[in-house]
Design a protein that fits this description.
The relative contact order is 0.19. Helices cover about 65% and strands about 0% of the residues. The chain is an all-alpha fold and about 150 residues long. Its main location: membrane.
Length: about 150
C-alpha cells in the first residue's frame, strides 16, 4: 500500500507539472491584476511560513516527510496541508488574472492533482500518527475552519 501511495503521489506531481508548464508556456501565471497578485503573494508567504515551520524535510516530492513527529504549530495549526493549500490558492489566482477555458483546464489539472497528493499523504499520516485523526478535526485541509 505504501508503495502505491508514493508512486500515486509522484504521478500526481508529474501531472500537475504539465499544468504548470502549460501556464508558463502561455504566460498565464503572473499578471498586473492586483487581486491575483495579492492572492499569489499571500500564497507564497504561507508556503514560506510552512516550509520554515516544517524544516528541510519538506523539500522533496514524495509524500509523508514527517517520519519523527506530527507538526501542528505555525500554519499547521490551521491547515493540515498549508503547502498544498498555498499551491491551490496561487494557481486559482491565475483564473482571476487569465479567465479563459485553457487556463481553467490547466488550473483544474494542478488543483486536482494537488488534492490527490493531499489525500495520499493523509493516508500515510493516519497510518503513521495515532493522533492524526484528532488533529484533522481541528486543522482543515485547504480553507481554515471550513474545509
Amino acid at each position: 500500500m505504501k508503495i502505491f501511495l508514493k508512486y500515486g503521489s509522484l504521478i500526481a506531481f508529474l501531472i500537475s507539472l504539465l499544468g504548470l508548464l502549460y501556464l508558463i508556456k502561455n504566460n498565464s501565471i503572473l499578471s498586473l491584476n492586483p487581486i491575483a497578485l495579492i492572492i499569489q503573494i499571500a500564497s507564497v508567504g504561507i508556503m514560506v511560513w510552512a516550509r520554515i515551520t516544517f524544516g528541510i524535510k519538506s523539500f522533496h516530492v514524495s509524500s509523508n516527510a514527517t517520519k519523527e513527529k506530527l507538526i501542528t504549530n505555525g500554519p499547521y495549526k490551521w491547515w493540515r496541508h498549508p503547502i498544498y493549500a498555498s499551491i491551490i490558492y496561487f494557481f486559482l489566482a491565475c483564473l482571476i488574472a487569465f479567465p479563459n477555458y485553457k487556463t481553467f483546464i490547466a488550473v483544474l489539472i494542478i488543483v486536482f492533482s494537488t488534492y490527490v497528493r493531499m489525500l495520499f499523504e493523509e493516508k500515510e499520516l493516519i497510518e503513521t500518527f495515532e493522533n492524526y485523526s484528532e488533529y484533522s478535526k481541528k486543522a482543515k485541509r485547504i480553507i481554515p475552519f471550513i474545509f
